[in-house]
UniProtKB/TrEMBL annotation:
Pfam families: Hikeshi-like_C, Hikeshi-like_N
Record keywords, A-Z: Cytoplasm, Nucleus, Protein transport, Transport
Origin species: Aldrovandia affinis
Listed GO CC annotations: cytosol; nucleus
Name of this protein: Protein Hikeshi
Residue ranges occupied by any Hikeshi-like N-terminal domain in the UniProt entry: 6-128
Amino acid sequence: MFGCLVAGRLVQTDAQQVASDKFVFNLPDYESVNHVVVFMLGTVPFPVGMGGAVYFSFPDPAAGQVWQLLGFITNEKPSAIFKISGLKAGVGGEHPFGMMAPQATSVAQVGVAIEALDQLAQQTPISSATVSTVDSFTQFTQKMLDSLYNFSLSYAVTQAQMIPNATETFIPASTILRWYENFQRRMAQNPSFWKTIHTSPQCLAPGRKESAPTHNATAQSTPVSAYHCCGCPGCTSPAMVLSAHNTAQQEIA
């Protein structure tokens, strides 16, 4: 009825039926496992109004068998992936498996208990088992944006507080905020947009003589559709980027 899958291993379909409504998979060498997928084989559906609660248990001789609720599978959602690498031994709650025979210290267990959907809806899975839908690069980029924005704003002063200094260049805080919001918006629309941002040290904002790309070969060979702006006010609209690029091509010619 159920299957269990760990990346790099064969699919397990040999669940032990420890009760009429409870099934358990043994998970050898669990220390090397980051995620586990539990799914229905498609041969036998859940009875109407029923689903499966998925649990995980560490082999912990000191604390006894402690089960942690990972999540659920149903006829409408017949598979689910769970992160187990962040779970902590000895932490758990109520579970339907009772006392079972202890396992070897390197073997964990994944259990599926068939329960009423109404009962499943009242249970809260452990949060650290939820797999993020955001990839690690996007998470890193968001953290980088937040860090730069917060770091820059920590040095913000009002105009009355500013001390004239000929060696310093001051940037309005609103400019940092605008860049921050523009970058966030573009990441949400296309996480790979940064690959086509031009690498010229000057931006392509219209009206700036220094805005022409400094690398002639790049400017002549790069299609207009591949240009993206740096995020400054003069570069935020596609029309402005196109206009600037055409101007740059004329200057180069």
